[in-house]
User: What shape does this take?
Amino acid sequence: MEQLEKLIELQRIDNRIFGINKILSNVPDYILEIQDEYDTTNKKFSDLKLEIEKKSKELGEITAAFEKKKNLLDNSHKKLSTVKNTKEYEAVLKELDLLKKELYDLELKQLELNEELSNLEKEFKDVESKKLSLDEKYAELQKRRDVENEKITEELKELEKIREEVGSGIKKQFLSKYETIRKARNNLAIVRVEDEVCSGCYMKIPPQLYVEVKKNISIIQCPNCQRFLYYKEGE
Assistant: This one.
């Protein structure tokens, strides 16, 4: 009976520990209310930042190519005064036409990228402002959660100490079996029997076994779910 009572007490402690851990691992509703918006805004912020960096790099490359072509065009203009025959003159003119076309295309690309960057930076500024506001709000809610969890975290530490004391008074063979069952049966290893029914699996147990459980003089397991069984009238 003493071992049975200790197992019941251990189960009571484990139930509370399980409940506290569930609370600590769950995200409160007041955080969930802004979680989607917070995550979406932060992702948008990161995506825009990467896109701006990508476009800025591309613009830098286009600008460098434009300057290079511009220098080549200047050099080609200088060649015109040094050509010695018609063939060379025509070759230089062809080169000039090609360079002018390439410069025109590069200039158009520059204008296009500058416009894209301007739009992206405007959008980024709006998203950044929203992100800062949400970051502040989210931090406040996290702080509120930490404050709320502080009390039950202290309770959890105290329960773990009590659990160790209670567990030290239970025989090793019972404690080992209890832990095995608890892990396999959703944290519930010892349950009450009422009207010949196990309250763990809700299966009826044999009449003779029910009689033995009611005596509370030995530790008996449910034939179906293997949980430890106990009987307390009117509980």
About this structure: Helices lie at 2-25, 29-79, 86-168, 172-184, 207-215. The first helix runs from residue 2 to 25. The CA atoms of residues 1 and 216 lie 6 Å apart. The beta strands are 190-194, 197-198, 220-221, 228-230.
